Structures
1.
Amino acid sequence: MPQKTHFTSEITPDLDGREVALAGWVWEIRDLGKVKFVILRDRDGMIQLTFKPGKTPESLLELVSSLNKEDVIAVRGIVAASKIARAGVEVFPQELSILAKAKPLPVDIWNNTSDLPTRLKYRAVDLKNPRNLAIFTLASEILRAIRDTLYRHKFIEVFTPKIISTSTEGGAELFTVLYFERVAYLAQSPQLYKEQLTASLERVFEIAPAYRAERHNTDYHLNEFISIDGEAAFMNYRDIMDVLEDLMRSVVSVVKSREDRLKRWGLRPALEDVSGIPRVEYEEALAKLRSLGYDVKWGDDLNVEMQRALMKYYGPLYFITDFPADLRPFYTKRSEEDPKKSESYDLILNGIEIVSGATRVHTREVLEAEMRRRSLDPSAFEGHLSVFDWGMPPHAGFGLGFNRLLMALLGLENVREAVLYPRDRYRLEP
Amino acid sequence: MPQKTHFTSEITPDLDGREVALAGWVWEIRDLGKVKFVILRDRDGMIQLTFKPGKTPESLLELVSSLNKEDVIAVRGIVAASKIARAGVEVFPQELSILAKAKPLPVDIWNNTSDLPTRLKYRAVDLKNPRNLAIFTLASEILRAIRDTLYRHKFIEVFTPKIISTSTEGGAELFTVLYFERVAYLAQSPQLYKEQLTASLERVFEIAPAYRAERHNTDYHLNEFISIDGEAAFMNYRDIMDVLEDLMRSVVSVVKSREDRLKRWGLRPALEDVSGIPRVEYEEALAKLRSLGYDVKWGDDLNVEMQRALMKYYGPLYFITDFPADLRPFYTKRSEEDPKKSESYDLILNGIEIVSGATRVHTREVLEAEMRRRSLDPSAFEGHLSVFDWGMPPHAGFGLGFNRLLMALLGLENVREAVLYPRDRYRLEP
């Protein structure tokens, strides 16, 4: 049999009369006695295969009777436009091979009656669910749109090491790695590396795993997640917010183009479009929250509940900017007009922080002072600090949590649904 | 001063008379008394800034005298086509700011007199070398070309976990991670995950770090490297070799388009073009090697020296196919005609193996038998094996070492030159 010539989504009525080779999984079998229908599923959709005496070789009719759900089959057949079949088209098979038999599945991918722990335990099976196929094909298209946006803004892609010798930023809990004779750690972010790279490659981005050994066990924390990091020389936080606005616009237009498929499987995209993203100063956000009855004072961080409350004023997607400097990491640049504040921002989608960023400190003396202020010892960062002696440009950047973006965009209830094989406090398998 | 409006590479004679804003680093200062030249370097190239009385504001002339090499500057000025200046163009600055001063560098980025250990110790500085800028901007463009090729072949991008609970494939040495109360490992490859994903997402690729705790300390081994992995349902190893041929064609055309810049900095691309890539059966390769005097018998693996020797017959880029099955991992499918052989291949560039792949076993019973044959205990792989019960398609795939590809393509002597921050047996910093 020839290689698969088409994905099911490519079988349209205008192929009427054409021979095609398909391959995929048996989603459903409808046996009406003489006439039998098999719904074939592949990554991109479903198609009806119609078997009936006269149109179907005799031997195939018997083979069809032996099929089980999720058996893997390959089919060669003739496309026929149809007024009855879903999608207006069906295929009359002339040849059929069973490539693999399937036992009954441990996850109900048809009616979604399995709970999340069961689904994650048998994740490879759960991923056959058309809802998951819609999520993860979309994820790939979103990644592509994000990269294209960053290329357009002249960022180049880099990879920095995930095994590091010391805590990157201080504070966060790290996973320990035994590296030959030495103790090392898994990087919580590429922060210091990407800043260093602005001194040579100017505008860089990295899409790679990041690690947090936090003992959280919530619906929106992961211990291994995909971080999209960008950093650019000769830009400030406003320039980066411009880039992110463009980035979110591309992302939402990809989601929009896949809306039918998403809705068919019960997914409700959070954003219709992105025109401009409101940039709300922290102080203004505080005032709004107080007017809503929240007891929040200058210097407090905002929590998810507050971020949700602010949607009333700013919609589902907004920046909060100019946070108190002491709420942010040591490498954050203070505002020139008011050093209590910083040139920083978060991007909030559906109440969830999906991006965090800032203009960075680019002089060694200030960086050392900010470290000391946070009880970090500059001598532990000598390798990094010395880079600032040799021509470090002003720079700014962002860190975007890819799984959270996907979760918030699609209104998923748990971030684990936005990862193929999640790693959390108690989950190290499969 | 406005944001950088142009990269230096974008300043061409046709911009004559236009005002531009540039930013970058002082590469060279030529002081001819009244007239002074500053060569400004940025990520994409260099441009001559010309300061002369009458054309340059008085205050700038003084400022220029205070410049040191690698100071970070921003400039606003007027472009002028020139018959004398390199690239046929220069800029007459009207405004200049020193954004950061630089101390003398610990690496000679001008004359390449520093040795590799020094360069890697001060890697952030070493990366300012135009040769490195050429390598790593090209790396990003190659990655883009590779992804575009895989998208064209309908692969989608995925991410699989790098923290795993058991050895993926048996055999290789793994780094240990302390994962809360448990002992875990860093993945040596996404092999089993990507195979599982063919049962849902059909054609997947992943570009991510991979880890080998090998004690090698050679010029072509790394302990953390970027692995480009692809796996596709309903394909065999010949189909995958077709994809790889297309992929290498795109990669080489990117290199070709950057040839001038690469050659200027002493880099000699290994390939002029890719028409068809020879597919040499292992047995034929053995015969050729014997005719060259190598003492090699059926069942032996080929080493770098032999792979270099074969270039005499097949050129700088060729596949070796149909290896003895027992030389390959347990998941490799045996040939149907001769079960001593396997549906496997390596892709050799400049004597170095850059890709390895095969058609995979897709039935549980065979997989278990192949495990036992290699003294692996199937019960340790139960989670993976069970996926084969629930509709596993025939599939095939590849693993491409990105850093080795870059090394071989550009004729670099050491794979560490093809990584921003290498990790090796003795190197965990910076």
Note: The radius of gyration of chain A is 26 Å.
2.
Amino acid sequence: MKNAQHDEMIHLLRNHRSIREFQQKRIPPDLINTVLTAGQAASSSSHGQSYTIINVTDDEKKRLLADYAGKQTHIRDCSNFLVFCADLYRLEQIASLNGVNLKEVIESTEMLLISTIDAALAAQNVAIAAESLQLGIVYIGGIRNNPEQVSELLELPYRVYPVFGMCVGYPQPDKVPDSKPRLPLAVVCHENSYSPFEDVYPEIQEYDEEMRDYYANRSHGSRTATWSGAMLDKRKVPRRMFMKHFLNQRGFSLR
Amino acid sequence: MKNAQHDEMIHLLRNHRSIREFQQKRIPPDLINTVLTAGQAASSSSHGQSYTIINVTDDEKKRLLADYAGKQTHIRDCSNFLVFCADLYRLEQIASLNGVNLKEVIESTEMLLISTIDAALAAQNVAIAAESLQLGIVYIGGIRNNPEQVSELLELPYRVYPVFGMCVGYPQPDKVPDSKPRLPLAVVCHENSYSPFEDVYPEIQEYDEEMRDYYANRSHGSRTATWSGAMLDKRKVPRRMFMKHFLNQRGFSLR
């Protein structure tokens, strides 16, 4: 690969932005399959591939999922709404057919981590593949607002849970937002040992000002939050406190 | 981006293989920073960036981490060993400085998911960025064999836990393995609802034969397992059953 191509890939990765305004245009099945098989190429723990993607193309299901996720209309408007699920059901079925009892292992918190991470790594490959084909994506954690309804709608069996969704579609060219600044590298990446908070706090404060400008520009001056302020506003309302119970009910992390 | 470049990107994603044999050559700091900032560009829940990467370059620490992960010498031999951590400490510190009490929220299983997924999405971007620069990577779940020792060595505070590691370095050109076949797309990707197991099982059986050939080739005939067989062998030994207790002790998923 030539240097110019390396630069293009790094540029593509750094150029990510979440797309929430889509054209009314369907992605051809061949193209979405290209994206999905690129997703499959991500690593998985012990090559277990402990995830399943539900590719939602049905309009009525997308409309319901948009409601479940808190009236996120881009779920309805995108071409394909992908629901990434952690999946230990497939393994348990294979075990059962082979007379192996994996109940204790499958119910471990370790297997919750493995299957959740497998789903996330595949998803990020899907995101990059889609963006390289000039499609737009946005992750939807909001499906965890109503995970039971989502599971029922998609007929997820016991030992499968919906981790997050992803809208995929053709972006409306005039509605692509600016890319959002990230925390300074020194805040999120430390060398050899964890940096004391007081060492990174000045850089968080600088970033707070950068994000204040970003939010102000994007809202034409109406939003004055810093990053820290926006985070605290977001997190101080307890949300999805049912998650432990939900996961346990679906057969995850019981021990 | 031109079509040829789209193809390059999809090819790059599909061409992933885990590298465990590295040249004794250090990655220049500028180059690793390019990789890490590309990692930062991944999405995170509510833009919270709830992860920290410990970039381990110290030889003694790499040697110890190789032991903790079960004598994985590639951790010692790679240029940079990146430890991806879920991080709720940063948020709690910011909250505390602003007089906000986030204890209940931070201790939720939902925040375990958010921070673990944030770390995983950043990691997969790091993997793709590294591979686009012709570096090799391998994920290391093995650091969860001894997460307390890893946490202590890297001085991780309460509310931070090591999710997985990643070796990054220059591959030994004659020791790059073949890429591993994935499950047929129809097994891991279902349209509109979860496919019954009996519908996908024949494809799993075909894949079992494909993987039997793959393992046999790679081992010069000494390994005769199928994928299902290898998975059951791997999973039937309960591993890391302490994970729930460990996470609770580090302040995660307490409610």
Note: Residues 3-177 of chain B form a domain with the NADH Oxidase fold (CATH 3.40.109.10).
